[in-house]
Design brief:
- This protein is α/β, with parallel strands linked by helices.
- The chain has 13 helices and 13 strands.
- Helices cover 39% and strands 16% of the residues.
- β7, α5 and β8 form a beta-alpha-beta unit.
- The longest helix is centred in the C-terminal third of the chain and has 24 residues.
Length: 472
């Protein structure tokens, strides 16, 4: 049955708006080419969307033709302002954007573990209000929040979880109270990171993949056939509770110690580094990122030198350089800033003795022992491969992205080691990639979901008219 005229108009409007979002400002002629619609139909939808306050003339195209230049149309970016929060156990980061996703202001604030629930909530809410003012936003249309923990699939609320601060749950309710006109939603941080990696990062070419989050804790997000999978109770990807060999106990329903978390959390990475004689600096997460980054730097520095520590190679034997991606929203959180100190390996990177020459018939000498940096990265890859192999055996995703701050610090050097181990452990072909967004993926994902939700409402047929500005 053919669509009714009103339905056809709505479909055409949404198509044009989606193209303007993806491609940026376009002329009516270019819209005609991209949509395949007739010139009169495009003229009608441009007039209709302009009257609705959704698009406006933003310039002229300097086309080489007779007559006046063509008008260029773009989405009215200040039609709505959006906010995203990345909530961690140790603080919160906030970014405010316009309707097309352009970041207008951002900031973060640390929240100590000894801060009470009320003061912690007030600090976070005050930060949101301050960043919104700096962005020139009189009101927030949509607020997207990324937080650790389980999200109740029926209510969409953050469930009470042992080990997570109470202020996380209180923050969501308080923001809704302080911003009564805003649409406030919360999503698991790892799920948001996966959405960002799929849209902007290491999984842009993948409809099916798993993101393994490596930060202060561990987590996984599952994307199958283009859709994020949350599970019956919202707990898909709680890989920290996965029972694994090499731990002294089994995890419980309230504590993931003894599970994969005990092998790959920030504290476990720091402990492993100490076992491999790599120094750690105070601060759990900073140390985990620091020791991994330092080990990778030593591996790179000694790459290719005769008699030195060998670099990691892929299946084809080609040496790869580490990715250096950092958060586009919060660069200071994922990359060292000028003046930051990086942990050093004790005694530097000692050269690995070569096999040397030997006379014919002489017994082969044993292979040289790996230097501390290589030994640490190998041991860490062994641990990560346990979790990755379990995911691969159940889901066969074809691709696993090592995400989070630690995944970014390890880069290709760590990813290639895990990839080699998975190739030996499973018959299922699996790519292992390093994140390109790092810890900033959570904020990117929160902004992405907030923008999509706002556009879904505003771009709908008969969507709400523009609202007059009101101060805070």
């Amino acid at each position: 049955m053919p669509a009714s005229p009103s339905t056809a108009r709505a479909i055409n409007d949404r198509l044009a708006l989606r193209l303007l979002q993806q491609e940026g400002p376009l002329t009516a002629g270019r819209l005609k080419q991209l949509t395949g619609l007739s010139r009169p139909t495009v003229a009608d939808l441009v007039e209709r969307l302009g009257a609705a306050g959704l698009i406006a003339v933003v310039g002229e195209a300097g086309e080489q033709r007779r007559g006046p230049n063509a008008k260029v149309y773009g989405i009215v970016a200040d039609r709505a302002h959006l906010a995203a929060l990345d909530v961690r156990t140790e603080g919160v980061a906030v970014a405010v954007t316009d309707l097309v996703g352009r970041v207008l202001a951002e900031a973060s604030v640390p929240i100590g573990g000894d801060t009470g629930t009320g003061p912690a909530v007030e600090q976070a809410v005050t930060l949101v209000e301050r960043v919104a003012k700096e962005a020139g936003a009189d009101r927030l249309h949509t607020v997207g929040i990324g937080a650790p923990g389980l999200i109740d699939p029926s209510s969409g609320e953050l469930r009470d979880s042992t080990g997570l601060p109470e202020w996380h749950r209180r923050l969501v309710a308080t923001l809704q109270e302080r911003l009564p006109e805003a649409r406030v939603s919360v999503e698991n941080e790892t799920n948001l990171a996966a959405l960002a990696e799929q849209r902007y990062g290491a999984a842009r070419d993948r409809d099916t993949f798993v993101l393994l989050w490596l930060g202060q804790g561990t987590g996984a997000a599952v994307v199958l056939d283009g859709a994020l999978r949350r599970g019956a109770s919202g707990g898909t990807g709680e890989i920290g509770f996965l029972p694994v060999p090499g731990t002294t106990a089994l995890p419980t329903s309230t504590d993931c110690e003894g599970g994969f978390h005990s092998l790959a959390s920030a504290a476990a990475v720091v402990s492993l580094a100490a076992e491999c004689d790599i120094a750690a600096t105070p601060g759990e997460l900073t140390s985990a990122v620091g020791v991994v980054r330092a080990a990778v730097a030593v591996t790179r520095a000694s790459d290719g030198g005769p008699g030195e520590e060998p670099a990691a190679a892929d299946a084809g034997g080609a040496v790869r350089a580490s990715g250096t991606g950092s958060s586009m929203l919060t660069p200071g959180r994922d990359a060292p800033t000028p003046g930051d100190s990086v942990p050093l390996l004790p005694g530097g990177a000692a050269p690995v003795p070569g096999a040397g020459s030997r006379s014919a018939g002489a017994e082969a000498s044993p292979p040289p022992a790996p230097a501390p940096a290589a030994r640490f990265l190998d041991a860490l890859a062994d641990r990560l491969a346990v979790g990755v192999a379990s995911v691969v055996a159940i889901l066969d995703p074809g691709c696993v992205v090592l995400g989070g701050e630690v995944g970014q610090a390890g880069g290709e050097e760590l990813a290639s080691r895990v990839r080699d181990r998975i190739a030996r452990m499973t018959p299922l072909p699996t790519e292992v990639r390093a994140t390109t967004l790092g810890g900033g993926a959570v904020l990117r994902g929160a902004l992405l979901t907030a923008r999509d939700r706002a556009q879904e409402e505003l771009f709908a047929p008969g969507g709400p008219p523009p609202q007059p500005s009101q101060g805070w």
